[in-house]
Amino acid sequence: MAIAKAERLMNLALCLLGTRRPLSKRELRGSIEAYLEAGNDDSFNRMFERDKDDLRELGLVIETVENIEGETGYLARRDSNRLPPVSLDAEEAAALGLAAKVWQQARLAGAASGALQKLRAGGMPEAGDPYEGQHSAIEPRIPVHEAAFEPLMLACRDRRPVVFDYRKSNAARPEPRQVEPWALECWRGHWYLAGYDRDRGAERVFRLSRITGKVRSRAGKYTAEVPDVVTVRETVAAWAGEGAQRSALIRLRAGAGYPLRAKATAVREGADGWDELEIPYGHGLDAWLVEFGPDVVVVEPADLRADVVDRLRAVAQG
User: Fold this and answer.
1) Max Cα separation, the chain?
2) Which one of 150, 218, 245, 250 is most buried, by most CB atoms within 10 A?
3) Is 103 helix (H, G, I), strand (E, B) or coil?
C-alpha cells in the first residue's frame, strides 16, 4: 500500500510539473492509472484531495487556476518549485548535519533527514563532522517521549488553540485546560509549553509530562496577543526558585530529596534522622516541595509552610 501511494504521488507530481497549462481533475484522472481504478467519483475526489495535500506538505507548490470555461485546473510551475542555489561551505553543512541529529529520538527525525537530502540534492556539500574525533563521545540529543509534543508543536506553528487534561503537582486528578500555545522549550531534560490559559486569563507554563490523554485542537483565532519573546526557561527557573532573593529553611529526611540537596546553599546534618537545609525561595517552591511528601517539613517562612500545608490537604481530599 505504501509503495502504491508513493507511485501515485510521484505520477501526480510529474503530471503537474510537466504540463504548460492547468490540468483539470478530469484530465488528471485520465492520465494516472490509480485514479482510473478509483471506482466512483467520490472515491477519486477524496483520493485526489489527499494526494494534493500530501504533495503540498512535502513542499510542492501547486497552483489552482480557473480557466475561461470556469473549470478548475492545477499545475506546479517549475520556477516556483526549483530549489535556489545552495552556497554552504563544509563547516556550515556540518552544522546542519549536527542540528539534524538533535531530533533523532523524536518523530521530527524523518523531516530533518528529508530536509538534508533536499539540500544535498541542491548542491550542499556532504562534509564530515569537523568535530569528529574531538567530541565523538558526546552527541546532541533532545529526548521527546511525551505524546503531547508533536500536536503541541504543530499547534504552536499553526497558531491553533488546544484543549488537554493537565495534572498539577499538588492535584490528585487532572483538570481540563484551554490554552493558546506560544512556544515549546526543553529545560533540564523536560519539555515545557508556554501559552495563554483562557480559563485563568493569564500566561501559564505547562510541563508536558503532566499532560494526560490526547491534545485536541480547537477552531478559532487567538484571543490574546502573542508576545515577541516567550521566556519559557526563565519562567520555569523562577518557579524552581533559581535567581530567588529569599531563602527557606526546611527539614529533610536523611537519605531523601537529593534534588533539594543539590540546590541547598547550606546543609546541617541532624542526629534525629532529619537534616536542615537552606534553599532558594522563589515562586512555585511550594508545589515542588509537595512532590517530596512526608520527607520534607517547612520550618520557615510561615507563608511557604502554609502554602505547602494547603496543597497537601488538597491532595488528601482528592
Assistant:
1) 92
2) 250
3) coil
